[in-house]
Hints:
Elements: H1 2-11, H2 14-21, H3 26-29, H4 32-46, H5 58-70, H6 73-105, H7 107-120, H8 129-136, H9 140-164, H10 168-176, H11 181-218, H12 225-234, H13 238-266
Helix pairs in contact: 5-13, 6-7, 6-9, 6-11, 6-12, 8-9, 9-11, 11-12, 11-13, 12-13
Amino acid sequence: MTDTHTQAGAAVPRGARNARQHPVPKALRGWVLPLGLLLVWWTAFRFGWSSSPLLVSPGAVWARAVSYTASGELQTALGASLWRNLAGFAIGASAGLIFGATLGFSRAFERAIGPSFHTLKQISLFAWIPLISVWFGLGDAAKVAFLSLAAFFPVVLNTFEGIRSVPREFIEVARVLRFGRAQLLTRVVLPSAAPSIFAGIHLALIYAWLATLGAEYLLVAGKGIGNTMIDGREHFQMDLVIFGVIVVGLVGFSLNWVATRIERRLLAWRGHTVAQF
């Protein structure tokens, strides 16, 4: 009897067993929490659980989204924010890669510059705003400089740690095989450090987007999705504020999704090291 049950269980495809364990399709599992929050929001408004004018209906937010998109204001604001974000990310990540690699490869450079860098990284990012506003003003140049700073530090730290964490055994094997400097770099150091470097770039992209909203709140000149939310707050248009929050979340989710897919594609040679549940 036991053998019969064992054989029957073994005959069940793996996908079918996973379907039994997870009755909700995988593509829909991520929607459980948003839909639950939407249901609570609608219920709270429908039954008047709060009399505050700060609670607007989902329908009002949807109407605002439609009108704001149709007028082109959303595209203008979001385009300005994304341009700053990507410009700051590109500058900060590029500088971080160069600085982090130099710090990782050169002991002398680390001894001379490392202590100062590790001191500067302890300073809150927003503490740089007064200096940046004095040096660059309140326009796009200041915002891009702020975003570059946000992207710089995680890339430096992860690049440095990735290079320094290359196993010594790999270096010794490369020397036995008489690898030149270029071969050692391209066939040993960079492949070993790549996961850490990409983790830093991934973090930099996230931090740059978060800093984009902070820069638009503190350096208010110009267009941007953050400025849209400020306008909604000042005019007490809570539907516009909530719509802005939703847009910010969706853009952040999209940037993270794209970065994750690129990282998986470029590091596919590692295989799957994390168990899938």
